[in-house]
Design a protein that fits this description.
The protein is an alpha/beta fold and about 325 residues long. The protein has 2 domains: about 130 residues, NAD(P)-binding Rossmann-like Domain (Rossmann fold, 3-Layer(aba) Sandwich); about 170 residues, Dihydrodipicolinate Reductase, domain 2, CATH 3.30.360. The chain has 10 helices and 13 strands. Strands 8-9-7-10-13-12-11 form a 7-stranded mixed beta sheet. A 6-stranded parallel beta sheet has the order 2-1-3-4-6-5, with helices on both faces. Strand 12 and strand 13 form a beta hairpin. It is globular and about 60 Å long. The relative contact order is 0.15. The model has no long low-confidence stretch (mean pLDDT about 95).
Length: about 325
């Protein structure tokens, strides 16, 4: 281990996201991991000390404790990646979706404060932002976003509900029925929308993975919009991106189903456009791991951008 390697502290390293970040960083020699003894993990003073001793702190905490942890930073050299939703619409934090725009990866690399995207917003923003920017989907278009995630997206309590001895959790649960899910403002802001989208999430009886879909009616889109143009806008936006792939239209046409677990264990995001020309309908779809590109994978990707920038001096 290089004693001069950057020191990384994961605050909340026993939670789902924190544990997965640890697994993804296991065996690396380009960084040092700072951990606290079990008896100190809930001690605010010891946690603040660890945060301020680190080069980069990764917050894997509920929103309230994440705000407290961020506020405890007194060392101006410390850089923070927040995996909670506490700072996702805060103008003082850089949004941690490197593929969102040209230059976003560079902004993340040099930022002092980075807020990791939510799992559902990752898919929704990836699909919508390039289309809004291209004028193919109006910013005020009435959009409906539906998503099904593995139950790990609900955190430790939801995992216990499904995995504890004798657990009898439902096979499928639709939630967010008050239509006030905390991810909706995040989607609206970073997709470039001027009207609140309709967002309805659900959990399935599988541990991890997401399928997110957005239906579109051609008749309600700007004249000349087609599946080909929609696909071209996405393909051009993500050309050359390592972690985002856009399914070809021919492959999409032969696809019979979408498996939410298809990219589990990876940091990949797969986008597709399905079309029925006869009925003038399209379906935008994103498949990814809610614990990968939707959480720990994205955090490590952002961490690596920061580390690369630090290595350059």
């Amino acid at each position: 281990m290089n004693s001069n390697a950057p020191l990384v502290f994961i605050d909340g390293d026993q939670g789902t996201t924190g544990l997965q970040i640890h697994e993804r960083l296991h065996g690396r020699t380009d960084l040092r991991l700072l951990t606290l003894p079990e008896q100190d993990r809930k001690d605010p003073a010891r946690r603040a000390e660890a945060i301020n001793a680190s080069d980069i702190a990764v917050l894997c905490l509920p929103d309230g404790p994440a705000r407290e942890a961020a506020a405890s930073v007194t060392n101006p050299a410390v850089r923070v990646i927040d995996a909670s939703s506490a700072h996702r619409t805060d103008a003082g934090w850089v949004y941690g979706f490197p593929e969102m725009d040209a230059g976003q990866a560079e902004r993340i690399a040099s930022a002092k404060r980075v807020t990791n995207p939510g799992c559902y917003p990752t898919g929704a923003i990836a699909l919508l932002r390039p289309l809004v920017q291209a004028g193919l989907v109006p910013a005020d278009h009435p959009l409906a976003i539906h998503a099904v995630s593995g139950y790990s997206g609900g955190g430790r309590a939801r995992v216990q509900e499904h995995e504890a001895p004798g657990a009898k959790a439902p096979a499928f649960q639709v939630y967010g029925l008050r239509l006030a899910h905390k991810h909706t403002p995040e989607i609206e802001r970073y997709a470039g929308l001027s009207a609140r989208p309709f967002f309805l999430p659900a959990y399935g009886a599988f541990r991890q993975g997401i399928v997110l879909t957005i239906p579109l009616q051609l008749r309600s889109l700007p004249a000349g919009t087609s599946a080909e143009k929609i696909h071209q806008a996405l393909a051009q936006h993500y050309a050359g991106q390592r972690h985002v792939e856009v399914t070809g239209l021919a492959e999409a046409e032969s696809t019979e189903h979408l498996d939410p677990e298809a990219l589990n264990g990876s940091n990949q995001l797969r986008l597709s456009v399905f079309a029925n020309q006869q009925h003038g309908q399209m379906l935008l779809a994103a498949v990814f791991d809610n614990l990968g590109k939707g959480a720990s994978g994205a955090a490590v990707q952002n961490l690596d951008l920061m580390l690369a920038q630090m290595a350059k001096g």
